[in-house]
Amino acid sequence: MFLFAVYALATLGVLVGAFVSPGFRAIAYAPLRDLIIPPPKPIVLDVLYSTEKAAWIDEGVRRFLTSGPRVEGRPIDIELSKSGSREMYLAVLDGDVEPDLISPASMLQISLLEDLSAARTDRFGGPVVDRRDTGTCRPVLNTPVVLVAWENRSDVLWGGNPNGQLWLRLHEAVTRETWEVYGHPEWGFIKFGQTNPLKSNSGFQSFLLMTYNYAEKSSGLSNEDILDAGYQAWYREFGRNVTQFGDSTGTFMEEIVAYGPSRYDIVAVYESTAIEHIDNAVARYGSSHGGLQVIYPPVTSLSDHPFCVLDAEWVEPEEAQAAKRFLDFLTDREMQELALHYGFRPVHEGVSLDQPGSPFGRYEGNGVRLNLPDQVEVPAGNVLNTLLEFWARNVQP
Hints:
D-Maltodextrin-Binding Protein, domain 2; disordered N terminus
């Protein structure tokens, strides 16, 4: 009788504790708890992200949920949605979506969202993101924009060492139109492809790098630089001769591998996308075109894939906490090791690029480099908006 009384009191204590503190529910006696106390309602975290990292994110969510994450005793669940990076921030601005956590391909889009949301006083009380607050907004993966070309074409244009002439030589080649002026009439027209800056981040970054290169800067890009008549004429000439401004970065890599130089000689893509397809090109063509070469700009722009918690009225405090937990998980060593497997550069300093099995060592012969050139500065949102407006008015196909 005495033991039964002790058990009853202990059970009552557990039940009272579970009612008073949600965090105590996790240790309550499960069958009895589920009969008397309803299980805590999950915190559903809405995550909107860009497609380039889909395979890594899918595996990350699986591992995160398997670990049984909780906030205040409530389990965390995640709902994923994919979007293009520009489409993402415009949808947030217009109220078409209300995610808790967003991840475009680059901090460029976060800079735009921060600037544009501050001006939308009808919808927001201030900037909906703060790119300087590393607790709520920080990169989780890195991959730069690169040019990928068939080796024989690359050798003709840059001689294996483009240095500061990368964009100038590309502009010269594209506007000359044919390989005949380089002594190779059999190659036909010079075919360069990149994505549309209004639709895809890699195209936006390529456009930004060319603009910085013309201005002979790596920081401090201004509206005056973009409105300069000489620059505008120079870029319009280039834009008129680009073979294709596409919607998807991956499509260009797939087509350069599938069709060879009959479709493209040179494309602007992400380093991670290039790494993914180098072996496919070798399997298809062997050394007939010299294989694919990865060429790095003299200064670069990283797709740093920031994850940012939105400071918006629809994001509840528990959802913000859950988003930070997920962000911490994505930047821990396990997930950063996995990122390396997918050809991304980890942000975790303890994950080395030259470890055994790393693609960065495996594809050194194709031009893949361990060390990157310096980065250009991410301009203010109003400058980026001016750049996109110029493109829309003057180059938009």
